[in-house]
Amino acid sequence: xxxxxxxxxxxxxxxxxxxxxxxxxxxxxxxxxxxxxxxxxxxxxxxxxxxxxxxxxxxxxxxxxxxxxxxxxxxxxxxxxxxxxxxxxxxxxxxxxxxxxxxxxxxxxxxxxxxxxxxxxxxxxxxxxxxxxxxxxxxxxxxxxxxxxxxxxxxxxxxxxxxxxxxxxxxxxxxxxxxxxxxxxxxxxxxxxxxxxxxxxxxxxxxxxxxxxxxxxxxxxxxxxxxxxxxxxxxxxxxxxxxxxxxxxxxxxxxxxxxxxxxxxxxxxxxxxxxxxxxxxxxxxxxxxxxxxxxxxxxxxxxxxxxxxxxxxxxxxxxxxxxxxxxxxxxxxxxxxxxxxxxxxxxxxxxxxxxxxxxxxxxxxxxxxxxxxxxxxxxxxxxxxxxxxxxxxxxxxxxxxxxxxxxxxxxxxxxxxxxxxxxxxxxxxxxxxxxxxxxxxxxxxx
Length: 446
Ligand SMILES: NC(=O)c1ccc[n+]([C@@H]2O[C@H](COP(=O)([O-])OP(=O)(O)OC[C@H]3O[C@@H](n4cnc5c(N)ncnc54)[C@H](O)[C@@H]3O)[C@@H](O)[C@H]2O)c1
Ligand SMILES: O=c1ccn([C@@H]2O[C@H](COP(=O)(O)OP(=O)(O)O[C@H]3O[C@H](CO)[C@@H](O)[C@H](O)[C@H]3O)[C@@H](O)[C@H]2O)c(=O)[nH]1
Fold this sequence. Notes:
Pathway: Nucleotide-sugar biosynthesis; UDP-alpha-D-glucuronate biosynthesis; UDP-alpha-D-glucuronate from UDP-alpha-D-glucose: step 1/1. InterPro entries: 6-PGluconate_DH-like_C_sf, NAD(P)-bd_dom_sf, UDP-Glc/GDP-Man, UDP-Glc/GDP-Man_DH_C, UDP-Glc/GDP-Man_DH_C_sf, UDP-Glc/GDP-Man_DH_dimer, UDP-Glc/GDP-Man_DH_N, UDPglc_DH_bac. By secondary structure, the chain is an alpha/beta fold. The protein is about 45% helix and about 15% strand. Helix 15 (about 365-375) links the parallel strand 10 and strand 11.
């Protein structure tokens, strides 16, 4: 009998994981405390934009014509507990309000809702990103609360997917990491991931703390790489160098690599910023805070990028923002996602509005989410509409659509022709040819 899986928490991670597990051939039952999400997913639609996910849902959600019927949703914890041989916990672990530390209340609540219904041998697998030490704590919580007691096991299986590539990253991961304290847990997870492992995906078995740390270490490294190149951008600007050429040149060294060296307004999203802060907070609790003081600098280089973009815009306008019209291209923290959590683009837009600018934002997929978070910003249905009458245009999220814009057509409707490229992905020559003053970050102005 193939294993039956459940997925608890159906956001960016959980909805993708549930659909991907059905694609691997398992029967999957999903649960989320937000019933609007399960209702939507049950009709094959996603609560968020993630390329390829609706196709996967159409292939597997029960009740959709021609689907495998392997993926279902419920609101009942009892049903989840009875159904699952393996339960994946994919709930959110945001930054605590006003603190660096991780808010574990959603994970704790999911585990305490599930545990009292666990009456037979079963495996609970944490996928959320958590502070090191959480798995051991949750394992004892499960043993205490579950009627099946020691027959309930826990494993930690951190997730490395990127938004915008979530489906592919889940079906074909770079590596699978499992933190276990028992061979049976490892065996069950080898069964779950047999297909990707048979295709060559490395399967790394670790203890709980190492598995938890692998995740935060990976995100800390990625964040550091971005802040490193952004620090080089600051120096390039001071010295008259070009950070894009510098990144290409150092990236040819295999030990450094080309990826994650795109300078600009820095990293945002629901992961890197909060994960490096939670990592610092946890290291502090463990008495190892000195080990991670460099992450404070990584964070401040990153936040400085946003303010620097605001300063560049002010400079382009020749003074303050009061009464000036600013078009912002991009609202999401990255392209191919509708996620606006800690978005550098919206942070810049918000700062300019606070300083008196009239800001109009356009984004291909993020406007609804942006409007909920920043209701007082202006929003336009197209890039052309956002640019109409603008005194400066800020390119802040690197959507392909923005690379394909016609600078000549935009020049006709703009108030003034100032383009500031916060992602260094537009073609300076093309924009300049169309009459724009083009300004990038960490690159020469002319
Ligand atoms: N988004 C990513 O790209 C990504 C990648 C890797 C790891 N992660 C980690 O995965 C976790 C989830 O991230 P996300 O981006 O999917 O968050 P999200 O906010 O999109 O989704 C979390 C979901 O969990 C639900 N939930 C909260 N408490 C619950 C409970 N007690 N029971 C059932 N459902 C509950 C919420 O309603 C929500 O739908 C976080 O720890 C994050 O750091 C995220
Ligand atoms: O060279 C680069 C690369 C990225 N970014 C920015 O960095 C942020 C994060 O990008 P990315 O890492 O691609 O997005 P996420 O989907 O947040 O994925 C990260 O966070 C996830 C949640 O933990 C992990 O699973 C992934 O492995 C990790 O890449 C975005 O704002 C990007 O614009 C840059 O500024 N320069």
